[in-house]
Amino acid sequence: MRFAVLLLASFLAAPILSAQHTVPSGGQWLIERGDHPGTVELTVRYGEGRYSSNWSRDVPIGELMGLSAADMSGSGATVHFKIVRSAGTLTCEGWFDDGKGSGHFTYQPNPDFVAELAKRGINAPTAWEQFQMTMSGVGVDLVDELARQKYDRPTAAQLARMGTHGVDLEYVRDIGARGYHLEDAASLVRMRDHGVDAEFIASLDSAGYKNLSAEELVRVRDHGVDGDYIVEMKALGYASSDPEELVESRDHGVDPSYIKSLREAGYDHLSLQELRRARDHGVTRGFILRVKDRGYGKPSLDEVIRLRDRGLD
Prior knowledge:
Helix 8 (185-193) runs parallel beside helix 10 (214-222). The protein has an eight-stranded antiparallel beta sheet with strand order 1-4-3-2-8-7-6-5. The chain starts with a strand and ends with a helix. The chain is α+β, with helices and mostly antiparallel strands. The protein contains 16 helices and eight strands.
């Protein structure tokens, strides 16, 4: 399921809104065809001015209770449906034209949700936190999954934050299936924010990098060390057991194409440290060939770097 939460204003201003207890009683909805069969792209808009927000996500059509395929393919007919979540319900009305719809909704929190959280030892959410959990689909199923995977018990505020950052039931299950049980909700949020998902972890697993910490996963992701990079570097003989070695090389611009270019110039047994040093000093295949054309034969890498530093062109 494609997930995209557009936090244009009020999620970023959540502490302010929470302090003001400003929870919208309603707003606007828009629906278009989704990226996958059986889904629609649902956008919800609420708030005004600097506190206005858009929330957008592909959802299964089955989540729109009371809305049929015939309703969606109609032309101007009024529709009524509900989006029922554990934390609350959006009651919607509006119209469709050729698969695209729009209208307004009213929001109603679910008091039973607070009771269910209490049964699980979680404090009552604020009205704003409960609204956030309604919008992002955070429910007791997520709480139960966290408990099953032996995470620290989250607070209501942490659950709301998980939801607004895209840490949903599917994400927690996918990460858990890859062997990552991180104990605390903050690590899940950080990984999600940095684009660490099950697909990325799978690419690292297939390249032989397993059981990394949350911080290591985030760091390699941030620095562009993915499964493809690791596999290509291994194929060139750089199978470092330390991901930090590859992170440093990536940061210095040492990639497979650079290594191949130096090998074409006759330098084919350089260590990663030597490659990083050569890259830092601007040593390229073209420069090495010009050095050779000047009659230097095949100088050592140190000699090539000295020539480069002295401005030989």
